[in-house]
Design a protein that fits this description.
19% of the residues are buried. Helix 2 crosses helix 4, helix 3 packs antiparallel against helix 4 and helix 4 runs antiparallel to helix 5. The chain has one domain. The chain is mainly α. It has 6 helices and no strands.
């Protein structure tokens, strides 16, 4: 491989060897690996409850609690993810390898936070709140997709099966 090809390949790499070693050794990698699927499971349950409320008009309290549970997990995964990013990349957020995922994460957090604020401020009717929750969930699905693509890229980079 020519030196310029090696430089281009290093630039395209998601992790340097040192970052990969820090990632693999970090407890925060395990925490993220546990919280991400847990959050997705809570999302699926909550999505069903929100849709049930919008379709049938019943179960508002359960849907509301489920959105609050999903939002709490989102906040937790954002904080622990920032710590993970600091351990692996040396900065809490917006490391070049995860810049756009972090940017979009703030949109996701903003929509979830808007839901919580509107709920406690009484600023929206129940149906409107549930539609806001669905908007937050749509953004979450896009963001989760971003992270899954990065996970796949990391596996391909390491030579592990995708």
């Amino acid at each position: 491989m020519t030196p310029s090809a090696q430089t281009q390949s290093d630039a395209a790499a998601l992790y340097t060897p040192a970052q990969r070693a820090r990632r693999d050794a970090s407890l925060w990698t395990l925490v993220q690996g546990f919280l991400a699927p847990l959050q997705f499971l809570v999302f699926l349950v909550s999505l069903a409850l929100v849709v049930r409320y919008l379709v049938a008009g019943t179960g508002y309290e359960a849907a509301t609690w489920s959105v609050l549970a999903k939002t709490s997990l989102l906040y937790l995964i954002m904080v622990t993810g920032a710590i993970w990013e600091k351990v692996v990349f040396g900065q809490y957020l917006f490391a070049p390898a995860f810049f756009w995922e972090d940017v979009f994460s703030f949109a996701v957090i903003g929509l979830h936070t808007a839901y919580v604020w509107a709920l406690f401020a009484g600023a929206m009717a129940p149906v409107a709140l549930m539609w806001l929750a669905l908007a937050a969930y749509a953004a979450y699905v896009i963001n989760a997709g971003q992270f899954l693509l990065k996970l796949r890229a990391a596996r391909l980079q390491s030579g592990a099966p995708a």
